[in-house]
Structure formats: C-alpha cells, structure tokens
Amino acid sequence: MPRVLITGANRGIGAALMIAARDAGHSPIGTTRHGGDGFTALTLDRPDTIAAQLAQIGAVDIVINNAGVIGPDRQSPLDMDFIGFAQTLAVNTLAPLAVVQALLPRLRDSATPLVLTLSSQMAWMGYRKPDRIAYRASKAALNKVMQGLASTLEPDRIPVVVIDPGWVRTDMGGPEADQDPATVAAGIIALINRVTLADTGKFLHFTGKERPF
Ligand SMILES: NC(=O)c1ccc[n+]([C@@H]2O[C@H](COP(=O)([O-])OP(=O)(O)OC[C@H]3O[C@@H](n4cnc5c(N)ncnc54)[C@H](OP(=O)(O)O)[C@@H]3O)[C@@H](O)[C@H]2O)c1
Q1: Which of 42, 52, 75, 195 could form a disulfide with 134 if both were Cys (CB 3.0 to 4.6 A apart)?
Q2: Hey, CA dihedral for 185, 200, 152, 61, is it positive or negative?
Q3: Which residues line ligand 1 (CB under 6 A)?
C-alpha cells in the first residue's frame, strides 16, 4: 500500500484527499499545523524548519503538497501588504519544495515515488488579472520551482507534476465555486496510477488533462 503524505489534511481539498486516498486503498499520512487526531504535525510558515519537523516520519512513497493560503487582504499591485506577500510565498512556494527536499531519501527508496503539488489556474501567465497578486505570483513561482524540480529528479525516476484543481467549494474557494472537493480529490488520487515519468514537469487539470502554464 503506497504511503501518501497529504499536507493541510484537516479541511477543504486536503480532507477530501484523505478520504479519496483511503477509498483507493492507499495509506494516507495527513499533516496539520498541530497534529493530533491521527494527523502528523507540520507547520509550513518557516521552510527552514520543515526538514526537522519531518525527521521522524517513516516511509513515504507519494507527496501531495496541498496546503496553501490565499494571502493577505491587501494584495493589489499598488496596495500590497508585503509581510503578507512574503508569508504567502513561504507557505505556497517555498514550503512545498522544502517538503520534497526533506522527504527525498524516502522517495528515492520508494518503488512508486511521485510528487503532486496543488497549484491554481490563477497562476496562468496568459492573462493580466491584477487582483490577488500575492496568491497568483506564489502559484506561478510554485509552477516554476516544480518544473525545475521535475527536471532535477528525472534521473531518479521521480515524477513531479503540478495540478490545477479548478474552482472548488472550500473555505478558500467559497460557496459559489463549481467543483465539489470530493470529485476533485478523487480525480487527483486517480492521477497516482496514471502519472508516469513521461508526464514529469507538466501542469495537469485534476481530470488528468494537460493545461498551459
Ligand atoms: N479552493 C479552490 O478553489 C482552489 C483553487 C485553486 C487552487 N487551490 C489550492 O488547493 C489547495 C487546497 O485549497 P483549499 O481550497 O482546500 O484551501 P483551504 O480550505 O483554505 O485549506 C487550506 C489548508 O492548508 C492548511 N494550511 C494553510 N497554511 C498553513 C500553514 N502555514 N501550515 C500548515 N498548514 C497550512 C490549512 O490548515 P489550517 O486549517 O490550520 O489553516 C488547511 O488545511 C491550496 O494549495 C490552494 O491554493 C484551491
């Protein structure tokens, strides 16, 4: 049974991923800020602390970097909360890389290694929308980080892809969103058996369809 580490597992897409992973016969290890209730404690605000926080974790085959933040209230180009912007980058962009670095020995030991990271359509470079720039920039940078990581880990035969979950009904997505978390989570978990090294570096919709960066 592959052991799947899922960050931000207490609510939203992460909680739905825990259920979908169990339903698919995987063995999920959920992380939350404070642990408890069968969760592993992992806070993502300080990337330099992540390796130490994960030092005692056992075998991990698959990493799903799910946790993320929408960012500060003020994040338009001319009215920017810079501290909040930096915190958004720490959680959304730096932490996923630090998690993979920390778990790399486990992934290298695995027969079925895989890294999936939740990005967003809001990262798309094909339009010039000016709202939520801290969030958009953090996810665009995340895509570039994961693309580079994909190339770096290709010789280790560890596929790395970023995922667009669509607009999902969670605390972040709000009640008007068109996707329900269970459907999105089931799609993402199904990717575990579909993604191969031929897909590494791609940006995939949760349905598995490749999409532009
Ligand atoms: N919902 C959407 O429409 C949508 C669209 C595109 C992409 N996404 C992405 O999908 C992922 C999940 O989103 P969601 O809608 O499920 O969000 P959510 O409902 O707001 O849940 C976010 C999760 O991330 C955790 N988290 C946030 N900051 C953390 C930190 N510093 N340390 C540890 N955990 C932290 C939260 O833990 P706490 O409960 O402790 O805060 C929570 O478990 C995110 O990466 C998001 O950017 C979502």
Answers
A1: 75
A2: positive
A3: 8, 10-14, 32-33, 43-45, 66-69, 91, 118, 120, 165, 167-168, 170-173, 177
